[in-house]
Every structure is written in structure tokens, then in C-alpha cells.
## 1
Amino acid sequence: MTAADDHHVVIVGAGFGGLEAARNLAGAPVRITMIDQRNHHLFQPLLYQVATASLPTSEIAWPIRFLLRGYKNVTTLLGAVTGVDRANKQVLLEGEGPIGFDTLILATGARHAYFGHDEWEPYAPGVKTLEDATRIRRRILSAFEQAEWETNPARRAEWLTFVIIGAGPTGVELAGTIAELAHDTLRGDFRNVDTRSARVILVEAGPRILAGFTEDLSSYAERALERLGVEVRLGQPVSDCRADGIMLGEEFLPARTTLWAAGVAASPAAEWLEAPSDRAGRVRVEPDLTAPGRPDIFVIGDTAFVAGTDGKPVPGVAPAAKQQGLYVAGLIKARLQGKPAPPPFAYRNAGNLATIGKRAAIVDFGWIKLRGRLAWWIWGIAHIFFLIGLRNRLAVALNWLWIYVSGHRSARLITQRDPGSGSASR
Amino acid sequence: MTAADDHHVVIVGAGFGGLEAARNLAGAPVRITMIDQRNHHLFQPLLYQVATASLPTSEIAWPIRFLLRGYKNVTTLLGAVTGVDRANKQVLLEGEGPIGFDTLILATGARHAYFGHDEWEPYAPGVKTLEDATRIRRRILSAFEQAEWETNPARRAEWLTFVIIGAGPTGVELAGTIAELAHDTLRGDFRNVDTRSARVILVEAGPRILAGFTEDLSSYAERALERLGVEVRLGQPVSDCRADGIMLGEEFLPARTTLWAAGVAASPAAEWLEAPSDRAGRVRVEPDLTAPGRPDIFVIGDTAFVAGTDGKPVPGVAPAAKQQGLYVAGLIKARLQGKPAPPPFAYRNAGNLATIGKRAAIVDFGWIKLRGRLAWWIWGIAHIFFLIGLRNRLAVALNWLWIYVSGHRSARLITQRDPGSGSASR
């Protein structure tokens, strides 16, 4: 055992960034401890498909310790980190003693955020965890069940109105899939309601949907959504969310199901470090992804704010987090070997993808832009490729093929009742 | 519209019996309303596989209204029945108005029961619903996570001890699968504990396991369990269940995870009808499965107590419930056509199956008894055959093949935290 073998790297968070760091450090002469408050890594880009009953939970999530079982220098612990004791170089945990580190990597991700309106959360839940997704799935499916009971036409229409706030990729994907669920999958399952009469309304404060894409791709996506029967409302900020609808400026829009896809905030890593942060709570890291003044603490993924080489902030997407995990692992290895530090982190944008329902998508690789059915196939193949593990790739591919061919969705289960939500969830 | 078209059959409960009744009445000149408090039909014989992380929830459950979508005279409603107004021939519902019936079929199933010790439930949960199964899955997986943290060897051993109370088919299946999970699937995933040291203890008050089978099959099953590393304790009734273990007579057995597979009680249909019932709360029905004195009210499945033609009670298994659903549908159709009533219900026992882990099973068809690997294949094929829907058959077959070949289990997700369960579930 050399001295380097005693170098202890603690990674908090087994998302895309943390997992990539662990894997790339696994061969190095270090001990690694991976701590996450959940037992599973989640493939977040497909989480909206769980929320809309297209995929079961187990096909987009894997036990972290299973993913890391082959790396003998990695210990995985299920635990909730509550802070960082920087003076003593320790991570603080809920209900367990502290864990010391030589190098710390914080990759704790983000939650959806309501920017000063946390009271909206019960009425407009967001989708960041498996629990969020099954809760939203229950809400959507229960709304149709309520409509089947309802005899008052106005109230029935409220149950059949679905509002999605925020027209980024998640909001667009949710709106498109809910429209397909109502207008196609559920058609014929009910006797008292025609699910095709359901309204799906996508609300966006900005002037266009998918603002991260070029204008022509975003206007194509808007038309594709409208073909699916989604109403797109642009330039209308939400001023209130309630159980029975939302306020768009002065207009009240009655709806029993509202989903939030408008914003996220970083986990409290900036507070733990008392480090400067941006409006979304992300730690403003150095160009080498270390926390200011702390070369032994890295912050990566959705928890970090760093400008790309083009001056624009690195986006909060899975490929960026993975590149950062890889970069940090390389930097730590270089240090241990006494080699010079690598150049600052540079984000390579491999392309932007978004999907609209099960037959259309937009793809922007920079050198080529695609839209329509071909783009959808590229989107599907790319996502299946990045899914971890052969079995899940196969299972997800089968599921999609099934939905594509038959229009049925297998994961239409109402489970996990909210104790407090009353009759709506039964 | 004829008068017969106005005959309204209300079915409460979409388990095996209720669903079979609905399907066989679908062609008759009746209106049918199916009411269930859940939106899904559950393939209960495989529920223990969800509890032990072998199958995801969505592969053994299907939306009821999807299963009945093709039967245009069937309306499916999601609702909780709270009673029966026999004088006015109405079913009473939680939060909705009553629903009148001409003929009522109660097929409301059973829950696990503690026979006067309801205080044991939090410490020894049973497995009857999807929520039960995911809760138990979380407990089992969390116990290994706790053991990984624990430094005190005695407490670590408690986290690695799993007790199953009751050695009927469910108890045997749970014990065998947990032993495989610990000794095979999870091996190598942990750094501080050797999961092969986990103890799985099957406790039975009676003199042998699987008392419904012949003595030689049950002793074979006992040896098969012991080969999997399960400790079988016979003739030892449980006298107490606590958070940290159970009392077997005067002996205290420390264990952090205890599961209940010892008994069930019928749903409160007997109370709704003020009808005579047996010890397990089942309605003592007439030979034609009607409630005493009420030819318009049928009770079937786990909710009914009826003697078979051999004098022995009809067992609470899926084939019996299906045969009863079919029988009742035929009887109602005969009545509507003015035909004579069919002979009393007679149960045909098509065979008894139980599985012990992933390579052994016992099968008793009466004319032939089988055990070992061949019996396991028969068990697997029979269960896949009875799964509803092509897609689920394929998905379950793929899952099992994957576990069989690789030993990995894909559904190892800790979700749905208990709000009150503290650190054990994290």
C-alpha cells in the first residue's frame, strides 16, 4: 500500500457527473466513497416517460452499487449529506458520523424551483425524481378517472384540462406525451367521457418554445405540438397556481392538473461551502471546476455554474455533467502523479435533441439540423444507446416499439396514494 | 332496448373472480358496472417477485379499464365501496352517490390478517397489494444498506437477518427468493458486509411447510429451501413481533426485517351484508354462491366460504375465483333467458404449484406429482401463460430469463419512503 492508496476521494451524488467521475477514478490509486441519498442512479432525460405511463420506473433507474460493483476501490453508501466541514475536511451526514476526505466532488444535482412561489408546489408538481414521476402519473391518470365520475360538464372539462408550465425540452415532452395519452392511448377505455376532448395547454413566459434551439426548429416543434392537439400559449407568465387552475396574468384558466417544468435550483452545495452562487443557487466554480479557494473541492453538473469557452454558461444537461466528471477524474489523477494541471474545462456541445410525441423530434448537431421522423429515430437511438446496461436498452426498446406499433402504454398504474390528497387520488 | 338490456349487474372488485364474471357476462343483454378501489388488476401469484426485486410493478398489473375496453356494455369506475343498502338494492360509495343494482357480485378479495394482533403489522408487513410489495422491497434492500453502515457486529447481524412468518406458498416463495437475493444477486455489491452471511429464517407454527401438499413434496421443498440457505423452524408459533425481532415461544430471535405470510382475512363484505361468516370473515354462501336469502347477491373468490363437492372448503386461489366468476356469469345468463338454474358450484382442482427459488418447484396435478427443475419450468410456463396480455408475457419471460442466466435483478429500487420510518428507509 503506497501513500497514494490512502488518498480518499468522496463523491456526493451518483448522477451522470458523479458516476462518470467514480468510473474514471476507479483505476487510480485512491479509495473512493460514493454517497447518495437514493439507492439508484436515474436516467433523468427519460423521466417524463415514467410520468406519462410510457415506461415503468425500473427501466430508467439502476442500483448505484450495482453499477459500481466491479470497481473494488469504490464503496457505495446510502446516506443524506447535510453539510461540509471544510476546516476538518469532512462530509456531515444525517444520522451517521462524519466522513473525512482528501478530495471532495460535489455532484448533488438540482431540484425544480418556483422562484419565490414555493406555495405553488402542491398544485404544480415538477418532475425530478422517480417519486415525482409516479406522483405525476397518478395525478394524470386519476384526473381521467374523476372525469368519468363527473356529471357536471364544466367540472368534467376541468378534470380533462392539463396545463404544463414551461416550454423547455421537459415541458414540450410532457405536453406531447399527455396529448398522445389522451387522444390516442386512452381513447375507448372510458364510457362517460371522450378523452379526445381533453385539452393540453403548454404555457411559456418567453416568446417561443425550446428557446435553446434555433428559431426555425422551435417553430417546427410548435407546429408539431399543435398537430398533436396541444395548445401553445406564448409570452404569458403565470401569476398564480391553485388546485382548480392557474392565473395567466389577469386570465383564469380552469384546470385540475398542472405540471411544473419552468425552472430548477441547485441543491444546497453553495450553502455548505459558503461559496458564491448564481440566481439558481449554482456554485460559481473556477475554470478547473474547483470551489473558490478550495483546490480539494470540486463542484460539477447541475450544481455548478461555469462559463464555456464561448462565454455562454455550460448548460445543465447530462453530457455536460459527464464531461465534467471525466475532467475532474483526469485532473485528480494528474495531481496524484505529480503531472502539470490540465487546461481549464471546455464543454463540447455534441448536439441538442428534443422530442415531440412519438413521431417527431428536432436535432441540432451544429453542422446539421434535422426535424421530423428521422430526427425522432435519431433521438430514440441516442437515448437507448446512452441507457446503462444491455437489459435496460432492450427493455426500453421493446416498450417503445410496443407503444409505437400498438399505441398501448403498459405502465398505467395508479400507485402510492398521497395520504393528504383526498378523493382526487382515491 | 329490451327490458333485459336494463338489467344492471354491479361487480365490486376486479380480481380474478370479478374480471372473469365481467368477461363472461359481456355478451349478455345486461349493463355491467365494474367498481374497484384501484385502477389495476393485480396478478397476485407473482406479487412476491415484486417484493423481492425480481419483477417491476408494471409487469404484473394492468389497468382494469384497459382489460375491459372491448366490452362495450361494461363501465369501469374507480371508487371505494363502503357498504350495501340491501333494502334499496344499492351499493354505497365513498365520496360519490350510491349506485343501484339488479344483481350484485361481491368479489372484494382478502387482506393479510394478524388474528387479534394488529399491532404486529408495522413490524411484520404482509404482501397483498402493489404498495405492500414496493414497501417490502424497500425494507429488504434498505436492510442491506443499513448493514453496510453498521460497525457493531451484533447489530449488523440483526440487519442481515430476515424472518418470514408462515410457510404456505407465499412464505416459501419469499424465503427462497430473499435467500437468492442475499447469497447470489447482491454478492459483490457491498464492501463492508458479506451478503452471503445473511440469515433467512422461515417460521411455521404447524408441523411442516406447504401443508396443502403431500408430505413427500413438502419435505422435498424443505430440503430445497435448506439448500438455498434458508433455516426452517417448524412447530414454533410466534408470540410477539417487534421492531428488533420476534418471540418464538420464550425464545427471542433478533431480526430487523420480518415479513408476514401467515394468514388472510376476507374484506368486510360479510359486514355489509350482515351475513354469517367463518373465522376468516368469509361469507358462508349457498351452493350457488348467493348470499343467504339473497338470490340477487353473489359473493365469490377469497370473500366467500363454500364447501367443495368433497366436503373440503374451496381454497382461496386464483383458479377457484375464476371458476366462480364463470359459474356466476352462467347462472345470471340462465336466469335472464328463463332457463333452469345450473347445478351447484363444483370446484375442479386443476393442480397445485409452489416454487422454491429459481431452480426448484413442486407440482401436484393429482394424477402426477413432480418436483425439481422440470417442475420449475412447468411452474414458470403456467404462470407466463396465465399472465394477461402478450406484452407482459414477453416482458416477464425476458426478465426471468435474464435473472436465470445472469443472476441480476433489475427491479432493485428503493422508492416511496415511509414518512414515519426514520433512518431505516432513508
## 2
Amino acid sequence: MSGRLDPATTGNQSSAKPRIAVIGLGAMGMGTARALLDAGFAVTGCDVNAEALKSFAAAGGEIADTPAQAAERASIILLVVVNADQVEQVLFGADGVIGPERARANVSARLGEQPVILQNATVPPAFAEALPEQIPAGIDMIDAPISGGAVKARAGELSVMASGSAQAFERAQPALNAMAAVVHRLGDVCGPGSSVKLVNQLLAGVHISAAAEAMALGLRMGLDAQTIYNVITASAGNSWMFENRMAHVLEGDYSPRSAVEIFVKDLGIVTQTGRDLRFPLPLSAAAQQQFTAAAAAGYGREDDSAVIKVYERLAGIQLPAAANDAAGG
Amino acid sequence: MSGRLDPATTGNQSSAKPRIAVIGLGAMGMGTARALLDAGFAVTGCDVNAEALKSFAAAGGEIADTPAQAAERASIILLVVVNADQVEQVLFGADGVIGPERARANVSARLGEQPVILQNATVPPAFAEALPEQIPAGIDMIDAPISGGAVKARAGELSVMASGSAQAFERAQPALNAMAAVVHRLGDVCGPGSSVKLVNQLLAGVHISAAAEAMALGLRMGLDAQTIYNVITASAGNSWMFENRMAHVLEGDYSPRSAVEIFVKDLGIVTQTGRDLRFPLPLSAAAQQQFTAAAAAGYGREDDSAVIKVYERLAGIQLPAAANDAAGG
């Protein structure tokens, strides 16, 4: 990590690591916050879930009751929340990092030196683009959606699809170094980070739904699930998601690494963006309906690979059972 | 290749290579026929296209006017044609390898010793399953759809998704060794080979269409095509097809490695199979409509990545130009 900090901008903090606030301690936020702790930062976490706070405190983190409190004296503030509404709330709510309009005069005094906010949620690009207009001068912002899942978050090996000013990147660099394996620099304003994330989520969602459709059809035709997996992962029909998620199906393990509801949401942003731009997205729309069907059937909180259970419900195919299920009966 | 031939079954041919007939000298058939020539086999090719015959003769192959003539004294007969109708015709037509029902008594006398037919087309699994019933006793058959494209066909490095009896594989082994990098053995009867191929084609078609949809949306949002490609190929949204086909889009090169019409056909088999089985396939259906739209717009004979041109027509996005186009204007 040497050589990345510019003494001219880090000032009298050049010998101390900047304080970091992590707003949102879900699977991704908790992993990232703990990776930052491992890297030696003072990290304050905040979440509405008391269990998550307790767990983070037990791991050696500081905890706070509100985003405003978590951000006190923090120079790098991560918003690892789920959607644009939550970004609004943790930034501009009564107890938000910035607070409502009437309370913004003193923001800079509350935060640490040279503060930068990283918007890590998957949000509509237009929302990300408009955010900096509402941020007081002196506070930088990076549009920085993250990708990679809970395991890579914990290991500090996320992919970040990021756009923002050179100064904002300079300020955020210590945190980015510790939380990410790859930082894609996508432009010098907020917006393109979220646009590229949306392209990725479109593909990820369609590929999971397609993997389920293909695997289910194969089972209906009488093929063996493991055989399908072995051939497809060695063929031109393969995708990152087929290989990753169909392994969950083979194991009969639908514990949520990322839940069905996440793609109901993310493909919702994709198709809403398509409607706003008057741009047809037929595959995204079809995939969104499959995740919605899975949620309707009660699988919303299961792993997103449970979208294949729509076929089990409809057409009675037999999915591989979990090892413990097989042992039990 | 040593040790694969069993002297008990190869009999007095153990020192001579079996004669091979290749029915169909399109991109895949020509490549395979030439790879077999390279491996030292006597290969007779047959095609309705006179140019293809001429080209194969120039490469050192023998040529024949009809499937029946090509198969004379051949022990291994490949059917590298486009669909089930063509398989029917080259097998059971007046000049077919087997011929019409009234002419089947003498078939074995016309063919080489211990003949085996490889069905290499993408066909409905039910069609492949029923084929052996119409083949006279003494002639073996393998359901052996191929995958990999023209370049791998020429190099003898295809993937073969194959099912058939142990005896049929024994007889076909010399050809399979020379034409394929991988032979997936999927069962001991015809049908499963075509079922697995169908699963692969479902995914391949959906992934190409999804890649086009994602890339087009990214362009519409103002992103740079090369940037999208770089980020996605390093992310969880990647697929084999995204990586391969979007490279054609970046180069503005729509010369057909595999044409749009192939996926109009293959996704047609997928959705027809779904209808026959009463099994819903919403993503396949959406992708099929996109390839159909591309064919409607006149791109049927272009590379299948030209499915992205549907968006160019509809929504005026600017696709990358070919290098020579850019130089010209």
C-alpha cells in the first residue's frame, strides 16, 4: 500500500490511517467492514439490525446508533446499503450522514478531514448522477457499486465499478486498496459506475435465470444434473453464473449467498431504466418475471439459484437434494 | 491414439484406416473432412454445393454426387448437415446413405465393413431417439451433435455430445480421435446426445442475445463499448458467448462464423421441444424473437452477433465500426 498517499492531501494524517464509517452491515457491508478492520483501520459500523451491530462489535469494530454518529470524524464513509431509497435515507434522513437540508451547515465540522463518501449500492444511474448536487462543498463522492459477493467482501477482494473525481479517488484510495481486488475507474463524475454495474446485473440476472431454465429442461428431458453441469461448464454455453449457481443446485443448497429478492430489485432497476430511456429489454423482462415468480412461490429469501424451483413447482421436475436431506430420507 | 482400437473388432482392417464419408461440406463439415484427411483417412465428401465439392477435391479429398455414392465402402459415415429434415433426406432419400424403404435390403453390401453412422446435426432429441429404428441391422448409429465452430472443426478439436452403444463408439473411435478434442459420452442409446446439445444451444442463444441487450443498453447509457467489454469479461456477468461474440461487435466484423439463422433454427428446436413437453421456456422464447427480428431486418446470413443490430435499427445506438469503415470515413 506504500506510495499511494499524497502527503499534500493527507496532511497531518499522513502517519495515521483515516477513520472509516461503514453504513450498512449486511452480508457485503459486514464483510467489507471486517476486511477494513483487518487492514488496521478504525472502523465504525452502523445498521438497523442489532444482531449485526453486536457481531461487528465482537469482531473489534466500533458501533454507532445512527449514520450521523458513525460518520463523526470519519474521512471515508461507505454506504453499503441495498437501494436508492436507503442511500437517500442514510445520507439525508434526520440521522443521516449529511442530514436534512436545514442541518447541513455544520456537516464538514462533524466529519473527519477531507471526507469522501462511497455510494456502494446498486442504484439507477440517473440517481447516482444527481447525488453530488445535494452534497455540501468540501465533501467528495464516488459512485462505487460493488460486486463479488459476501466471501470476497470479507477477503477484501471485491470488484468496484467506480466513477468520480481524481481528488475523490485520492481520498478513498486507502479504503479501496483494502476492500477491493479490482477498481474499475469509469469516469470522473458519478453515474458511469452505476451504469456499468447495471449492465453487469442485467447479464448476471439473465444468466442465472437462463441457467435455471436450461438445467430444468435438461432434467425434464431425463438427463442427469451432474452430467449437464460437467458438459456445459466445458462448452460454449457456459457462463460465470451457470458455473457458480448451478453448483448450489447440484448440492441442493439454497442458503442465500445472494437472495432471489436482490434480482427482483436489480432487474427492476434494469427494466425501469429501459422504460425511462424508451429502450426495450426483452430478456431482462423475462428474467425479472422468473425471479418474481420465485418470490411469489415463497423463495424470495433463498439463494438466487432457487429461481429454478419455479420449474419444480410448475412441472414436477426432481431437483438434486441436499446431502443431509438424502441422509434423512 | 494408440491402444484405442480393439483387434477383435477391427479385424483385417487393423492395419488400414477405415474409409470415411462426410455428408455435408458446410463450415463444420468441410473443416471436419479436412481434419480427417490430415489424419490420413481416405475421405469422400458430398454436398449439393458444387463450389464446396471443388474446394474439397482441391484439398485432396474424394468427392461424390450423392450421399449413397459417398458412403460406398465407407465404414464411418458423418452426417454434418443442418437439421432433422436434411438428416432424413441424406439417410432415407432416393440417393440417401440408407435409401428409401424398398431399397434397404442391399445396404450393408454397399457400405464398408462394420459401418457406423454419426448423426452430427442439432436435431430434436425425440427425432434422434427414433432414428435407429429405421436403420437396418448391422449398421450402428451414434447421436453425436458437434460444437465448437468452423475453426475448431478444421483443427480436429470439436466437442462432441455423443450417445450410442459401446460397439458404435468402438467403430467410430478412429474418426472421433481425429475430429474432436472432447467426446462427452452421454449414454448408450441415441437421444441424450441431442438433449445435451439442446441445453447447450439454449444457453448459447440466450447468452448471445443477452450480451447484445446488455451491450446495447450500455451504449444507450453513454458508456464506451470497449470499457463495457473490459469490465464485464472480468466480472460475474461474463459468459463464454459474451466474451467471444462481443469481440466481433467491437471489431465491427459481422462476417458469419455462425449465422443469425442458425439460432433462429436452434432456438426453434428448443422452444418446439418445450411445447412438446409442455415445459415453459420464457428466456429461450424471448431470445428466439430477437434472432427472428434480426433475420427480419435482413441480418440472417450475418454473424449471430448481428442480433445487436436490432437495437441499432430500433433505437439508433452507434455500434463500433469496422476498421476499414473507419478508415473510409
